[in-house]
Amino acid sequence: MKAIAMTRVGSPEVLTLLDFPEPELLQPQQILVKLAAAGVNPIDTKICSRGTFYDDPLPAILGCDGAGIVEEVGSAVKNFRVGELVYFCDGGLGKTGKGNYAEYAVVDSRFVAHKPKNLSFAEAAAAPLVLITAWEALGDRARIQKDQTILIHAGAGGVGHVAIQLAKKWGAKVITTVSTPDKDRLARKLGADETIFYKDTDITEAVLDFTKGKGVDIAFDTVGGQVFWDTVPAVKIYGDLVTILEPDFSLDNLKLARKRNLRIGLELMLTPMLMGIEAGQIHHAEILEQCTEWFESGDLKIHLGQTFPLAEAKLAHEAIATGSTTGKIALTMPE
Questions:
Q1: How far is CA 136 from CA 58, 117, 205, 324, in A?
Q2: Half-sphere exposure of residue 90, counting CA atoms within 13 Å on the CB side?
């Protein structure tokens, strides 16, 4: 099969189209998926430039997200049949034989969900990692409640644009940061109650004005760096601040957050994959099955900003590196 793999650590130039053996079922609960599309995420570009999470030899097939058609099922598989359409987040972190920038993938059926009927394969492949991240950050880490007010950074980004929709689905009011009028329109279309143009507005002042000096119940940092620390005073006392990036303690310390008695949440949806926690990956599939219902009812949308053919994965990585992408990016496989 054809697959895009990183042949060494470096720039997007190291991504190479190579021939690999078609993967085979090794466990009775596995399924073979003929991939039609793969999602492209910032974690892919970080692995490419910094190295994989494992000591397995290169080349390594990247891509955590995939969508396609079930081609073969193991003897213990009960929830999927040959010919069904699926999407999932599994692989792509550097383990030999795992990754979705490829024509085929073998996946544990317990980690897979039925693809929403109203989404294209590219849209479905773009959804899993960001949906699971936003769900876990707001639902599992921050324990979002109806009528709370939420600040979501980068509301037109991959994680941010689905986080807005989940927060609204759960009954919250949403403030989000944007950088351009187009991103403002997208965020508001997806349900944001208030937008802040962060380049020319003091975010904390805008948040305190919107919340009448109280601060938000939950802040969701999808940017990292100084943004994490600058968000602390915008969160109410006893509120929640959740980040998907590792806080940089060289920029500040937790003194103000401690004084405000904030609950700090660290969200890494890759943990179950990295640590072999099957229950966590099963939970991910359950999240996706619920999201399938919401996609099909029109309560949830994925904004697919760009698609590239599999062979042009390098261009997809370069697009993410610019930091100016809107929504998600996906690769499509040759038919």
A1: 31, 24, 28, 25
A2: 30
Spatial separation of the C-alpha atoms in residues 282 and 59, rounded to whole Å: 28
* pLDDT tens track for 2-20: 999 999 999 999 999 999 9
pLDDT bin (cut points 50, 70, 90) of residue 325 is confident
- In the sheet where 15-19 sits, what is the strand order? 15-19, 2-6, 60-61
| Fold (topology level) of 130-266 | Rossmann fold (3.40.50)
> Domain residue spans in the chain?
2-127+270-332, 130-266
Q: Which residue has the tokens 């303690």?
A: 249
| pLDDT, tens only, 30-51 | 999 999 999 999 999 999 999 9
In eight-state DSSP terms, residue 28 is: T
d(Cα 222, Cα 134) in Å, to the nearest integer? 9
3-state SS class at 179: coil
What CATH class has 2-127+270-332? alpha beta
Judge whether 2-127+270-332 and 130-266 match in fold: no
Q: Is 189 helix (H, G, I), strand (E, B) or coil?
A: helix
Contact 293, 267 (CB under 8 A): no
Compute the distance between CA of residue 271 and CA of residue 169 in angstroms, rounded to an integer: 26
- Beta strands 216-221 and 149-152 are parallel
**Strand 263-266 versus strand 235-243 pairing type:** parallel
Helix (H, G, I), strand (E, B) or coil at 142: coil
Q: Whole-model pTM?
A: 0.97
> β-strand 30-40 against 65-73: which pairing, if any?
antiparallel
DSSP string, 42-107: HHHHHHHHH--SS-PPSPEE--SEEEEEEEEE-TT--S--TT-EEEEE---SS-TT--SSBSEEEE
Structure tokens at 116: 């929403």
* Separation CA 287–CA 132 (nearest Å): 7
The four Cα atoms 280, 133, 175, 322 give a dihedral, to 10 degrees, of: 170
